[in-house]
Amino acid sequence: MKLRLAVVTAALALAVPAAAHAATLAVDSTCYRPGQEGTITGGGYTPGAPVNFTLNGSPFGDTTADAAGNLVPATFTAGNVPGKQQRKTLTATDSLNGANTATTTFTGTNLDVVVKPRRGNPGKKKKIRARGFDRGRRLWAHVRGPRKRNVKVGKIKGPCGKLKAKKRIFKPGYRVGVYTVQFDQRKKYRASTEPRVTFSVTIFNVVRSSGAFASLAAPTEIWRRR
User: Fold this and answer.
1) Could you tell me the pTM of the whole model?
2) pLDDT digit string (tens) for 31-73?
3) Total of domains in the chain
4) Which of 65, 84, 90, 210 falls between 20 and 30 A from 25, CA-CA?
């Protein structure tokens, strides 16, 4: 995860290093999506001293301890996450007392929905996996197109907003056409809802024949991520 640190500065005179309590460090969430902002707080540092951050051992900006030894809050923006999710270790070190350091961890996760199978009978249940949904307790699928339907997919779990479920998105007999299926955490559909993952689903008939039997039209579907 690539992160950018934006530091809130304060005009503080450096104090003479003094004995301090054990340093502490915290972030305001245990999981972030790319582009989300977080805040770093902590205490127990040398009053007025610069405090340097590293993320997984690499420089990650700095802030200042106030007169009480607490960190002047620093904000960061979570960057891209390789793969599904990634664990990060953040460390803060007192520049006037290198032994005065603290560490915390958090997870970066991508927003994603996986639907399987993406081809086949539209009336059958789908295996659905989701992550990165942190705005509520439920995940919904909103079907829009020749017909409309709102489907409660299941309950979101954990700080990174994960779900694993098996659900029927289309009822048997949905007519041929192009549909939009939007996954989000609102019961009522709104195209601008965030976070969201959207698919385009095409339902069509495949003509099949077997020997002397007459041709039959069998419904099938194709899901494509937008």
Assistant:
1) 0.82
2) 999 999 999 999 999 999 999 999 999 999 999 999 999 999 8
3) 2
4) 84
